[in-house]
Amino acid sequence: MASIRIEGVTKRFGNVVAVDDLDLEIHDKEFLVLLGPSGCGKSTTLNIIAGLEDMNEGNIYFDDQIVNFLPPHRRDVAMVFQSYALYPHKSVYDNIAFGLRMRRFNRQEIDRLVKHAADRLEISHLLQRRPHELSGGQRQRVALGRAIVRQPAVFLMDEPLSNLDAALRVSMRAEIKRLHQTMQTTFVYVTHDQAEALTLADRIVVLKDGVAQQTGTPDDIYQRPCSMFVASFLGSPQMNFLRGSLKKEGDRVLFCRGGFSLDFPSAMARKLVGHAGQEVVLGIRPEDVDERTNSPTANCLHGRVNFTLSIGSDQYLSVQAEGVELFFRVGRDTRCADGDSVAIAVATDRLHVFDKETTQSLLW
Amino acid sequence: MPPRPRLRLSGVISGKFDFEARAAALFLLPVTVVLVAVAVFPIGYSFYISLFQLKLTRPHRVPFVWLDNYAKILTDELFWSSAWRTFSFTVMSVTAISILAVLIALLLNETFRGRRFLAIILVAPWAIPTVANGLMWKWIYDSSFGALNGALLQLGMIDKYVVWLGDPEKTLPLIANAFVWKEVPLASILILVTMKSIPADLYRAAKVDGANVLQRFIHITLPSLRPGFMLVFIYETMMAIRHFDLFFILTEGGPAQASHVASWHIYVETFRNLSFGTGNALAYVMAIVTFALAYFIIRTLGRRL
């Protein structure tokens, strides 16, 4: 059990800044996900926490104790790698036992702990096998077993599910969540998969170019993204973006683009009134709509259906409106054919507005 | 796709196969003829000769003696002592080559300034022809103006110049040293390539598991080097067993047969005593032993690759 504090950490590789003045507080027993596209510095951050990578500036504290110069094994961390990094010439048993042997546990204790960990991950029948005789999912379990057997204070996971196929990834996700619940330990988890981040995390840190863009609960990040980058990185299909400008009309604030205008609810209008006249980008999540054909009302986008994609439970509409292609998610009962005209009523209380220049949110 | 017809010479000649198969056989024919002429025929012919008592000093009396030559070899004390010397030369050389190759590979696997330059220098001995290498070491070991004597004297490690190659105790190790010097570069490259293929994540995992440098070397590097080691063992063992040039240039089997190894024994028997029958029989025995050894190494080391 440990809390981790990262203070002003900077890491440079030659001229490339991988992590740029990062501040981060990871609470005890928290499941924190570092999320970002490849090359954003998330793995480097994890390696710095593990002690596998030196930093150029800053401090790292475990429970208020500075650990900058402690080697990995003295930090009491365990790590799971994307490649699993199982020792290829050792049996599953020896793989799991290796860390304990290096720490000079006695033989009976090692045996007990290894078997306990194997039971927990349901790999007891594989203990005598070698890594190359295992499937991807089984290897992943062994890698987890190697991590949990030592009961470390902090779990570090570097894209542990990326090499698994889709179905297995979903079931292992649940397994990792369960592991976190039963182990009551701090987890730091790196991924580029927003679905993984949203399902697993207590809190998410979105990173880009080594800078933390936003930190918050999955709901926070999804519903109140602070920038266009965060907004577009989470959610599938991506958030729709529409350029336009803000206009003030009496008490109301309108988003205008050509002949199309949207009326913001009053709570939002109060935040936006100061930006009246400014060029902005409007963000609409695909699911934040109410699709109705032939009943044009206020706050409706009018367009033509390009095509529909069914995903079973729902369907995606590609709509050509206001000169751009927009994606919307509607119920499977909605019937519309390619080429139909539709009016999409936008849920105005869930709109997002970003500054066109800075791409930062004007709402949160 | 119809099954591909198996090429048989008879079928080709009798025109039983279609044009494509016959064309293929025709294209393969020249190289087959060359191979038969330079490889298959000599192998068969040397075995044939090994069944005769063929001495060039008595070219008109060549009796067929069945396996007598082989029986003679196997009861010859000099054959067994030369085989033993070949064995110790091989063990010495291959051990030294393996250890040095790992050390050099470990060095070249690190990144530091001048690594490329060092790599080129370390590979240089490989580029030197064997005979040139032999002559160079002959000068180095020379008893009156050799570099080894000069260096050791200046360092105060010897009082006067030593006849290095005249000491039966030292001859074999000194020749092995020259052999190792030439062979280490290739072995280093083979080991280095294997080393580079070890995933970095394994070392990171081991660091997190608490393994120190030595433990990481023992538990990750060494076992992962098995494929490279196998290549080095097989190749260098063959090279050492069959090695002839350095013995020819440096000592000619002496002093007092101290470097009279199996390959030298074959040479003496064949080209000095001109007994082609026993010479060929010896060569056959050596080929079989080399083959058996390679098979053994592949089976033991290669099984768990």
What is the compact description of this entry?
The complex is a heterodimer of chains A (364) and B (305). Helix content of chain A is 25%, strand content 35%.
Describe the structure in your own words.
The complex is a heterodimer of chains A (about 375) and B (about 300). With about 375 residues, chain A is of the alpha+beta class. Chain A contains nine helices and 20 strands. Chain A has helices at about 40-50, 90-100, 105-120, 135-150, 165-185, 195-200, 220-225, 230-235, 265-270; strands spanning about 5-15, 15-25, 30-35, 55-60, 65, 75-80, 155-160, 185-190, 205-210, 210-215, 240-250, 250-255, 260-265, 280-285, 290, 300-310, 315-320, 325-330, 340-345, 350-355. In chain A, the strands form four sheets. A six-stranded mixed β-sheet of chain A has the order 6-7-8-3-9-10, sandwiched between helices. A five-stranded antiparallel β-sheet of chain A has the order 13-12-11-14-20. Chain A has a five-stranded antiparallel β-sheet with strand order 15-19-16-17-18, with no helix packed on it. The radius of gyration of chain A is 25 Å and the shape is elongated. Chain B is mainly alpha-helical. The model of chain B has no long low-confidence stretch (mean pLDDT about 85). In chain B, about 75% of the residues lie in helices and about 0% in strands. Classes of the chains: A alpha+beta (about 375), B mainly alpha (about 300). The interface between A and B is medium-sized, with 23 and 18 residues.
- SSE series of chain A: EEEHEEEHHHEHEHEEHHEEEHEEEEEEE
Morphology of chain A: elongated
Number of strands of chain A: 20
Range of strand content of chain B:
under 5%
General form of chain B: globular
Distance between the termini of chain B: 36 Å
- Please state the structural category of chain A: alpha+beta
CA radius of gyration of chain B is 25 Å
User: What's the β-strand tally of chain B?
Assistant: 0
Radius of gyration of chain A: 25 Å
The largest interface is: A-B, 23 and 18 residues
Count of runs of 4 or more consecutive helical residues of chain B:
14
Task: Report the sheet-strand fraction of chain A.
Answer: 35-45%
In the CATH scheme, what's the topology name of the largest domain in chain A?
Rossmann fold
Give the N-terminus to C-terminus distance of chain A in angstroms.
33 Å
Report the sheet with the most strands of chain B, covering strand number, pairing sense and barrel closure: none
- How does the major sheet of chain A shape up? 6 strands, mixed
- Any guess at the CATH architecture of the largest domain in chain B? Orthogonal Bundle
What percentage of residues of chain A falls in helices of 4 or more residues?
25-40%
- The total of helices of chain A stands at 9
Helix amount of chain B, in percent? over 70%
